[in-house]
Known about the structure:
The protein is of the alpha+beta class.
Amino acid sequence: xxxxxxxxxASAVEALAARFGNRLITSQAVREQHAHTxxxxxxxxxxxxxxxxxxxxxxxxxxxxxxxxxxxIAFGTGxxxxxxxxxxxxxxxIDLRDMNRILEVHAEDLDCVIQPGVTRKALNEHLRDQGLxxxxxxxxxxxxxxxxxxxxxxxxxxxYGTMRENVLAxxxxxxxxxxxxxxxxxxxxxAGYDLTHLFVGxxxxxxIISELTIKLRGIPETIAAAAxxxxxVRGACQATILAIxxxxxxxRIELLNAEQVRACNAYSKLTLPETPLLLLxxxxxxxxxxxxxxxxxxxxxxxxxxxxTWTTKPEDRTKLWQARHDxxxxxxxxxxxxxxxxTDVCVPISRLADCVTETEEDLKRLNLLSPIVGHVGDGNFHxxxxxxxxxxxxxxxxxxxxxxxxxxxxxxxxxxTGEHGIGxxxxxxxxxxxxxxxxxxxxxxxxxxxxxNIFNPGKIVPVN
Length: 464
């Protein structure tokens, strides 16, 4: 992948400076901030950053960059985990944080129209008084545009789905600066190609999202959170499978292995039993939630679960789920000064116990520390590998572990990533998972929609 010619880049920056004034930033600190990654991948900053405020800004950046064949990388909040916001060929980063307006809320239709810089927490704060909420919760307070671009998921996915199921329509700036409208507010459509879901998960490689129409849900009458410890990971997974098979409408069900529980106890000042743990949440009426909790408690006992405790107090629920969302930081605190390499895989839930158990055995064999937390309801789990990134031998063991983890998941009918995406870090696993024909189809789509390869080059599928 080649950087743009120096003269072409200089001309593009000059044109952008004339258009945006002090909203074009070239300082080293800001450029590095816009390539910051929370993984082991090295930072690759852009050559300049434009602070966009409206769709016309995105269009003008794209037109100028297309004229000079300069890369364009969209930036939301920078919480992606596989190098999606890196700029390996340099170019211009478009920061969308100021495009944070909630344009329309249609409470009666349970949908809203927003700009891409709106964050998950800001949207739910805005919706609360109307009795509505947006359920996708990846943990970080990510932007909705970024969540769409990376096909984000999270703890609520077992009941409410992922971003794929919750985006109705998009407006996308294409390679010539014009706008594609991919759908309508209708809950279903059979009109033409499904362009909306072509851009969901495309990681900004096919165009830049400038507007989203997304589904909303009513805030449940009663929400109960629960914790249940198990003797083994297999028992916790079996309880989950039985609960899903019997139709208990779980809103959240998270698995923490014993090491992750120990880390959460220390970091979040909890006193949970330090054995495999399920964290759960039930949504519905008071009667429904009580019945769901009771039914799951019976299943848990059959599968080796211990005391099953639940609460409807908001402060108790918040404390429990905050500890889950702080899992990364709790792991980082286990070894101050070390780096944390976050990775994820996803398998059919019938194979989750096998995959987690074999992964734990691999960690012992390689003498590595990596607590595990998983969205057990959909077979997705995360490893937070603690490594000295300057220790080549330890990093080599870490890379061997991550490679074996992906191979294990794929051999079980699973995927190299359930949530984090491909970005730069997992490109090498796509061919084995989908086959060369699928990769060729992706390249053909990229070539058709971005013939100059200016949109986030070097991500997902390398262009020949």
